[in-house]
Every structure is written in C-alpha cells, then in structure tokens.
Write a structure and sequence with these properties.
Blueprint lengths: L2 H11 L7 H13 L13 H14 L3 E5 L5 H11 L5 E4 L3 H4 L10 E4 L8 E5 L2 E3 L4 E5 L14 E7 L3 E2 L2 H11 L13 E4 L4 E2 L7 E2 L6 E7 L12
Parallel strand pairs: 1-12, 2-3, 2-4, 4-7, 5-8, 7-12
Antiparallel strand pairs: 5-6, 6-9, 10-11
Protein name: Lactate utilization protein C
InterPro entries: FTHF_cligase-like_sf, LUD_dom, NagB/RpiA_transferase-like
Length: 237
C-alpha cells in the first residue's frame, strides 16, 4: 500500500478533501528544510572531548569501549574482548565492506560468518553508522550490510565505530543519515529500520530490579577506530 493511498484513506475517514495548494506547499517546504532543534550545550565540545563524552556516557549505561589506532587493529581487539568475557572465539559478523577488509587471517583462532544474526549466536560484530556523544548512543540503520538481527539476537554485541562517525547531538546523526543514505524505492533517506542503542538491553519492569539482556544483548562493547586525528587526545597521539 502506497503512502498516498494511506493518507487518502485517512482523509476520507476524517471527511477531509485534498489539502489546499498553499497548505501543501507549506508542509512540503517544512519537510524539505530539516530545521535544527535546540542542541544541548553539553555536546558542543572540541573533538577530543566529544569522543571522551561519548565513551563516558556509553560506560555510564553499562557498556564498555576500547580504542584502537586503525582498522587493522580491530581483530586483536575482538579476540581480546571475547577472551576477557570467556566467550568462544567465534561470532556472527555484519557483511560490511569495512569489516570484511580487516586482516582476520592474522588471527586464525577467530572463527566468524558474515551473515544475519541467529538465535544461537553468542556474539556478533556490527558496523556502527554513528555515535551520539550527548547520550552515548549508537545509531544503527538497517541495511543488507548491517543486519538488524545482529543488534538483537546475540548475547554479546560488539560494534566497530570510527571516531570520525561520532557526532555531538542527535540532529547531527540524522543529518548524516540524510546525507549518506537514499532508499532506491522511495528516494527518501529513511531505511526500513533505525535502531538507537544506548547500552545493553535492560529492564526494571519487575519489582524495579534491573535485569540486563531483557530484550536483546546482555553485553555491549564498542571498538572505536581512531581515524580522526582531530579527535585523538594528547595522551594517545
């Protein structure tokens, strides 16, 4: 069912005809303008502090983070994390070109399959589209190379995120998505699904007792690739 069919059905139910031309022009202009709303001052920081704020907020929400100097260092970071968590050295990996190009052959003890997530997966490796510093949130839009099931089914979720993809505020993450994503069917920027992930899955619905892994991964680990020289603090430079 098309968007126009749905909207026309709603108008008929409300006993309304088509929008007058001036109102339609006003709404179209509003949708095209993408005005920026109020952006919290806490995210308006120099790049090193912005990345540090992202990590601090991430860890505040029960997630963990590791910084590596380049993409070639990611396999070692994955091996270290799985060993530290006493997990098997195998995982499901998003079929993303950035992840596929990493030197996995240097770590023959690691075993992975590039595919969607399955209920039996204990660990996954996902590609992070953006990180939002103001809340320590990951933006994970669905795509063939970024299966949503990898965000939900495994018990331990690992995400590779480039420092250059960490932004200050939500508005900047949405602007990045609009600029880099276009749906072939509709011409719009929205994919089928966009997940905003802040820490591992958790719930306190029952007797206000916090339970991790309630609706998804029990553990979330973000591997940050320091590809942005402006974001590297002096201590790591």
């Amino acid at each position: 069912m098309s968007r126009d069919t749905i909207l026309n059905s709603i108008r008929r139910g409300l006993k309304r005809g088509p929008l007058p031309a001036d109102q339609k022009a006003m709404l179209d202009s509003r949708l095209m303008a993408h005005p920026t709303h109020i952006i919290p001052a806490r995210s308006r920081l120099p790049r090193p502090q912005q990345v540090a704020l992202f990590i601090a907020n991430l860890e505040k929400e029960f997630a963990t983070a590791a910084r590596v100097p380049d993409a070639d260092s990611v396999p070692a970071a994955v091996a270290d994390y799985l060993a530290a968590q006493n997990l098997p050295a195998r995982f499901a990996m998003a079929p993303h070109p950035m992840l596929a190009a990493m030197p996995w052959d240097r770590f023959p003890m690691l075993s992975f399959e590039a595919r969607r997530g399955q209920g039996s997966d204990q660990a996954s490796l996902q590609h992070g589209f953006a990180g939002i510093a103001e809340t320590g949130t990951l933006m994970l839009p669905s795509a063939p190379e970024r299966p949503t099931s990898l965000n939900l089914l495994p018990d331990a979720a690992m995400v590779v995120l480039r420092a250059s993809d960490i932004v200050g505020a939500y508005e900047e993450a949405w602007a990045k998505l609009r600029a880099t994503n276009q749906d072939a069917l509709t011409g719009g920027f929205m994919p089928r699904n966009v997940m905003l992930v802040t820490g591992p899955s958790r719930s306190a619905d029952i007797e206000q007792t916090l339970e991790l892994g309630a609706h998804g991964p029990r553990n979330l680990h973000v591997i940050i690739v320091d590809d942005d020289p402006a974001a590297i603090p002096d201590a790591l430079a």
